[in-house]
Amino acid sequence: MKNAMKKLTLALVAAAGVWAGPLAAQPAPADSAVLRQQIERRFEVLVLTDRIVLRPRSAAGSVRLIELGGPGTIAIDGAPATGAEVKDRLGADADAVLQLSYLDGAQRRALFGAAAASPAVPTPPAPPEPSTVPAPPPSLPPLEPTERRRVRRGDRIRFGGNVRVDEGEVVTGDVVVIGGSARIDGEVRGEVVVVGGSVELGPRAVVTRDLAVVGGTLQRAEGARVQGQFHEIGIGELDFGDLAPWRDWRRGSMRGFTRTLALMSTLGRVAILCVLGALVMLLGRPYVEQASQRAAAEPLKAGAIGFLAQLLFLPVLIVTIVILVVTIIGIPLLLLIPFALLALCAVALLGFTSMAYRIGQYASERFGWGLSGPYAATILGMLVIVSPLLLARLLSLIGGPIVPITFGLFVIAFIVEYVVWTIGFGAVALARLDRPRPPALPIAAAPPVLP
Amino acid sequence: MGWRRLAGLAIVGVVIPIAAAFLLLPLMVQGFVRAINGTVNASLWVAASIGSGSSTWTIFTTVGRAAAAAIVTPRALAAIAGLVLVSVVALYGLQRLLGYEEESSR
């Protein structure tokens, strides 16, 4: 009885193995997508009539070419390889390649959507199998295109505007858009990164590496290909329904809306600065007065110190982070970096407030406004400092022929604010070295001269 | 003499930032792109590692090794050497300016 049960169990296990074999070799739809993504991330795929050729994207390894012939047949650099050799030479990529090698030719073509693109196939391509493989994109872009393609070497970088890669256009580097959107109809051989905007991929768009959208959305036409990974970070697209201003704004036809928004944000920033300046004045008035005196006495020196401190900031930050990470034991100390940055911001605000206080005092005396209080002087100084920016924002609402004046004002506003922040920071550093001078000793009265 | 010195400083102050912007901006943008991708990938990896129950020090060790491996490339080493050079120049300048100030305040 016991033997009979044992035989029955073995028979069931064997039957399960017979059933599971083909099922395991045939990936489920979700697995197919993952497998394709894994393979395309690591290799350039060329689908031929009787085999698939994989070429590693990274030149770091020793493998140059992998050929997958019939099911289970793998050759590395022209030499047949066993499963153990594949694992030995490909390492982490071996599993994906082995899994791909289990598929037959039709499944592989369906997986990579290359049946229609294979020029050497004399017979009609095998139809995709919807039950096992997800619908593939129509075709791979031709390796040797017949039409003339415009190749732009290097990156395409745009701040505050949109980028368009037209059909037939090839960008060999990255496409980076900050504060704008990207429309890709051609090929981007690097990465696509869009911050604060959306990405539209046309039906023939090809992105060879990763695509990242921060604070925007991706609209992807059928047939568009992203061979790397896709990251979408943000709140997605807000839906305000058919609200007309929102619709117009999304279409980009209502520029006044964005300009008004920019003016409002500048006013908000000024208000926050005024509140913080008043707070600094409340908590550290002696420091503010000391720094403002140093800034007025030695503005060039303070500016040079502030500039050198800015120059020092980024290298020190990066090198510190690298050292902490590489030493492993320092990784927990990375938590202290935000606090250090916060302290640095506080020092910068102290310097800015000192400068605003001094400028406010000067303006008050110059125009005879009689603002004697420190808070009023600080706020007045801040308004004077940001006045070119406020004026530029106001003029930008008008637009038209005064655009060059507005642009000039923006440049002046940037320079003024930068100089004020820089000198203020340096003045705080200089004032830090000032020691409180000891009070003057009372001079003893001279003894009366005897006659 | 004072005016000449000031004019020289102004010219240097304008030319150096413009040249640096032309030379360094593409590199900075590339670095920014790599940083965004790296941060996203690292965050996903760390979340997956925590989810799978890996210990904190195992995660730290892997991160440290990956960072060390990423740094040991000619490009990364050159970038770090450039940063160190800039910081040395800035420190020297600060030492000249603030050191003199400290001496005089004693």
Please, could you describe this protein's structure?
The complex is a heterodimer of chains A (451) and B (106). By secondary structure, chain A is an alpha/beta fold. In chain A, the strands form four sheets. In chain A, strands 1-2-3-4-5 form a five-stranded antiparallel sheet. The radius of gyration of chain A is 34 Å and the shape is elongated. Chain A contains twelve helices and 19 strands. The model of chain A is unreliable at 1-27, 114-147 and 240-244 (pLDDT under 50). Chain A has helices at 2-25, 29-42, 83-90, 94-101, 105-112, 244-251, 255-283, 285-297, 299-326, 337-367, 374-398, 403-433; strands at 43-47, 52-56, 66-68, 74-76, 79-80, 150-152, 156-159, 163-165, 169-171, 175-178, 182-184, 187-188, 192-195, 199-201, 206-207, 211-214, 218-220, 225-226, 230-233. Chain A starts with a helix and ends in an 18-residue tail after the last helix. Chain B has 106 residues and is mainly α. The longest helix of chain B is centred in the first third of the chain and has 50 residues, at 2-51. Chain B is elongated. The interface between A and B is large, with 38 and 33 residues.
